[in-house]
Amino acid sequence: MQVIDKTADGLDHEFNVVVTAAEIEEKVMIRLTEVGQQVRLPGFRPGKVPMNLLRKRFGQAIRGEVIEKTVEESTQAALTEKALQPAMQPKVDLIQSDEGKNLEFSVQLEVLPTIETPDFSDLELTRLVAKVTDEEFGKTLEGLLKSRRTTETISEDRPAAKGDAVIADYVGQIDGEVFDGGTAEDAIIELGSGTFIPGFEEQLEGSKAGQKVTIKVTFPSDYQNSELAGKAAEFEVKIKELCKLVLPELNDELAKSMGMDDVEAFKARTRDLLQEDYDKASRLRMKRQLLDRLAESYSFDVPKGMVDLEFKAIWDKMDEAAKAGQLELEDAGKSEEELKAEYRGIAERRVRLGLLLSDAGQKNGIEVSPDDLGGAVREEALRYPGQESAVMEFYQNNQQALESLRAPIFEDKVVDHIMSTAKVTDKQVSVEELLSDPDEADTAEMLKSSKNGKTKKSK
């Protein structure tokens, strides 16, 4: 085998590989002999079929098989010889493969960059720390109690007022057409709660059980479903019952119904869970800070092919979201090309950080153990109450799905290692400050929802 260098420019490499016709012929003969020991042809005993007949019957197929295997093995041998680490699958093109002539093919690839071992001890990070206050704890308890409220019928013959609740069926229409998500039966509507869109609950005040009410509202311009945002809607509501929502008493009986021994154990566990939420938010904030510092501190060329794939994944998700009406691709007057350039920059940052973290993990011997994967599977299962066994079975029988959990686990372990090495200063902050970072908006929303028990606004 001969390797002929063609290009070596930064991360881009190209070389030709030549394998002599004699070597290919030798491999073809070996393979034909193997086939001759196994094949059965009329008039010949196994192993006694003439070579010329074997070549006539199987020569072309075997030659193709030999060339394919030779290209694969020679490419790997050339990469090993040249100590090249491909960033992605190399592109291989046949140049010459005719019978009786040398086999020649070209190999084009991008290699992984050489990354200098970073000294993470020089990094200075600030960890925002928020402790659960009695006020926050009280709001959380209140939210949990509200989530377990029961209804009690109001027997008094009077109209519904703010603070009451009604049980009702309703059908919503836009331009005379019933729309998805605008219909419900036996819905519990608390008047004055602000759970429904502005104007909906207010127009039910003064209604009585058995009455039908026509409600006219306009969805907010920033409504979460862009297909409904800003549109006028009309709801036909049938009031079935006037009632009040009753908070359960916070006592041992309630605690036991929630799996706790007594009310004190329930309170302690609730406070611990709330603190865990704040600690997770704190870690996410510091992780983002760490990634920003790494992006600012380390600059090296990254493989264009990897950036292309990452950009495509980002843009495809953006495009799907836009088609689903979940966002507008045109933002702040930016053209599609400007947006693509912006998101390509994000893709390049992600690839560079991914390579840096991967390199740091390998150099520090960080691995994902079977126990790590098992824990991740259990966490995934807990996200689907009632379907835990099915989720566990899915991952047990789907190796590809199981492997998809490996990358985020590895990244978190590397991040934890770096943060343990860096100089970290704790800073006591309020919960509001901890959750104020717009880049962590999703986390903040999740924590706020679990804290106060509010329901997302619907119709």
What does this structure look like?
The protein has 459 residues and is α+β, with helices and mostly antiparallel strands. It has 3 domains: 2-110, 2-Layer Sandwich (Alpha-Beta Plaits), CATH 3.30.70.1050; 150-246, Roll (Chitinase A, domain 3); 252-452, Trigger factor, domain 2 (Orthogonal Bundle). The chain is built from 13 helices and 11 strands. The protein has helices at 21-38, 51-81, 134-146, 252-257, 263-297, 304-323, 336-363, 370-382, 388-397, 399-403, 406-421, 431-434, 441-452, and strands spanning 2-9, 12-19, 91-96, 103-110, 124-129, 150-153, 165-174, 177-190, 212-218, 232-246, 423-428. Strands 6, 7, 8, 9 and 10 form a 5-stranded antiparallel sheet that branches. The chain has a 4-stranded antiparallel sheet with strand order 1-2-4-3. A hairpin with a 2-residue loop joins strand 1 (2-9) and strand 2. The radius of gyration is 33 Å and the shape is elongated. The N and C termini lie far apart (71 Å). Residues 440-459 have low confidence and may be disordered.
Q: Percent range for helical residues?
A: 40-55%
Could you name the CATH homologous superfamily of the largest domain? Trigger factor, C-terminal domain
Number of domains: 3
CATH architecture of the largest domain: Orthogonal Bundle
Query: What sort of overall outline do the alpha carbons produce when their principal axes are compared?
Result: elongated
User: Would you tell me the structural class of the helices and strands?
Assistant: alpha+beta
Count of DSSP-assigned helices = 13
CATH class division of the largest domain: Mainly Alpha
The parts where pLDDT drops under 50 for at least 5 residues are 440-459
Number of strands: 11
- What's the quaternary structure here? single chain
Query: What is the element string, with H for helices and E for strands?
Result: EEHHEEEHEEEEEHHHHHHHHEHH
User: What summary fits the major beta sheet?
Assistant: 5 strands, antiparallel
CATH topology-level name of the largest domain? Trigger factor, domain 2
- Nearest-angstrom radius of gyration? 33 Å
